[in-house]
UniProtKB/TrEMBL annotation:
This is Protein kinase domain-containing protein. Its main location: membrane. The keyword Hydrolase does not apply. It is found in: Membrane. It holds the Pfam family Pkinase. Residues 522-699 form the Protein kinase domain. ATP binds at K550. Keywords: ATP-binding, Kinase, Leucine-rich repeat, Membrane, Nucleotide-binding, Repeat, Transferase, Transmembrane, Transmembrane helix. The lineage of its organism: Eukaryota, Viridiplantae, Streptophyta, Embryophyta, Tracheophyta. It comes from Populus deltoides (Eastern poplar). Coiled coil: none annotated.
Amino acid sequence: MDFGEFAGSIPRTIGNCTLIEEINFSENNLTGVLPPELGGLSNLKTLRMDENALIGNVPSALFNISAIEVIGMYTNLLSGSLPPTMGLFMPNLRELRLGGNELEGTIPSSISNASTLAVVDLSNNSFTGLIPGTIGNLRQLQVLNLANNHLTSESSTPQLSILSALGNCKNLRRIYFSVNPLNTTLPISFGNLSSSLEQFWADDCNLKGNIPNTIGNLSSLIALSLANNELASVVPTTAERLTNLQLLDLQGNQLEGNITDNLCHSDSLFDLSLGGNKLSGSIPECLGNLTTLRHLNLSSNNFTSTIPLSLGNLAGILVLNLSSNFLSGSLPLVFRQLMVAEEIDLSRNQLSGQIPNSTWFHKNLAYLSLATNRLQGPIPGSLSFAVSLEFLDLSHNSLSGLIPKSLETLLHLKYFNVSFNGLEGEIPSEGPFRNFSAQSYMMNNGLCGAPRLQVPPCKTYAPRGATVTLVFLLELILPLIAATMAALYIFVWLRCPNKNVRPILANTRFTYRELEQATDGFGEGNLLGRGSFGSVYKGTLSDGMIVAIKVFDAENEVSCRGFEVEREVMCHACHPNIVTIFCSSNAANFKALVIEYMVNGSLEKWLHTHNYSLDILQRLDIMIDTASAVEHLHSGSSWIIVHGDLKPSNILLDEDMIARLSDFSIAQVLKPDGQQNSSGPSLFLGTIGYVAPGNASAS
């Protein structure tokens, strides 16, 4: 009897239907109590009243129907206890589903008399007392769900515990004990559970002791959760035999030692959670081979060394949490391959260097925390590419420069924290920044903005009328001045093509040892900046000469191609507005360029930093210098050189504020006939916002 959509209480007259074999009132709006007349339906085989609002006790007479096979009443408001004789008169019962109610008392040991039981679900109730060991006599049992109760297990004699008793149930496929104060250990006989066991959930159960080596016998396991217990020692090496695992959750225990390769043998691992333990050593490279991973949590341990580059192979990862460890080194550029990641948490480590450029930030990223590290340099404006970002924490680092106004476009941003850094300039005021308080910006002495943010007001350099007049004059006169001076410069340059050209220093050689000494061992104190292909250091040679040393990542094929191109271009393109190269090192494990050091840094600093400014004539000179360099690259020699990444950070200024073009690592070099002679990396790596729109869309 299936009543479909039905409301109200169950009529007591239902007891008159003595021949009825099936009743299905599931997912209706039933209220009231279960009529005791149900116990008189001697032919009833199936009773389903799941997901209603029934209250009161379960009639004890219901458990006397010998023909009953299925009792389903999960997700109601039923209360009371189960009768102590339950199971004595139900030889045909296969499914008992009473989960999600308000039942209490003990689970009767007589339940084992219902010997054909295959499914027992008493979860999400308030049962107390010991789990009866007689459940181990249910030889047909396939699913046992006792989660979210107040049940305990025999702890004084582990071999008599429920886990040992269940070794007799050879058909068991799923066991749920989660959130019960079992207060026991995992016995050695744990490995004697059914070889068909697929899921074992015992998180928040006050489990103690070790994870037994016999766990490797459970070769059919696809989900194992022992989270939030008091398990100690190490992860057993026999775990390597669990090759079908899709979920392994051991977080919140007291596990120690290293993670060995024994966890890298599953071809289908979806979720690996080992956070909140005492694990140490380095994170194994082999985790990068688990390409099916969607969630990886190694937080709150004692891991050291650097973040393995192999984690960049986890192209399908959704959540990556390595927070609260002792990881060092820079943020891996390979994380730009994590294109579907929604949450990345690397906070509370010892990471250094700069935050990578735009290739790190993808549209799916909603949560990013890099807080409490040793990061330096600017906040990249390319963070605005993470259009789904809701949480951004960069606090407690050594970041400098401006807060990019482009972040105003992050319309979903709800939490923003850059406190305890060295930021300066005006705090953005539009978009989500309307909602952030002073706590987001504390301890950044150079910031300015609205009084409510508890920072000084920003300086105003000209009245409104003067600004309007200046803008009008610039728009009217600047194009004319620029055109005239550019024409004059080109005329002089064509008449005197070799005048004032600085040649490459002949016979200049530096050993690796000399460069290492010049940079104090390539130390952080001499680091000028990091880019896509390597790092640039300030070096002081033995004769006092100051140079810039650009060190490429010799283990990265793309970086090595960039080195070859930049060396070739800089040796060929000799011009007063192009940075001069002194020498290069092309060893197998060390690739570097020694170039001129530009005292006044980059144009980006002068344009976008609060403490620097350029007047109109300086800006005009820099425009002309840059145009001259580009003109020389395009038509000043037998080669045609396309820079490919012309932006303020690649325009350097010498002691006389003369602009010098730099960074040719992704340049394109063409022969006179138009064919490509050599080029930078095949993957487009230009900077969005500066690159030609056609190339930007292609990337």
